[in-house]
Amino acid sequence: NLLTEREHGFLAGRSTTTALTDLVEHIINNIEEGKNVTSTFLDLSKAFDCLDHRLVLAKISSLGIKDTALQWFKSYLSERKQVVTVQQTINGITRTAISPPLAMTRGVPQGSVLGP
């Protein structure tokens, strides 16, 4: 099992509400036992957009994925580019501007079977 029992993201029946409930229960239990309680909160917005491809591939390899499967993941993350397209219609005339392609060396494709 790759996920801890404390994981709440991307799991059926778990959410920020269940995470908060677990946290409050943990705090109350520790206070009742006379222990100090310290919390750190991180905002990981856009976390999947920040993943370095080399680190993702190293982690996949450390989990035992090798050879052809590892090369497939490497191919999946390699040579990815993005562009920004802007359309504007004025007086019935539509104009489109497309930015130059930008190589993507970070982030994983989202909304797919392999992505978040």
Automatic annotation (TrEMBL):
Domain Reverse transcriptase: 1-116
Protein name: Reverse transcriptase domain-containing protein
InterPro entries: RT_dom (IPR000477)
Regions crossing the membrane: none
PROSITE patterns in UniProt: RT_POL (PS50878)
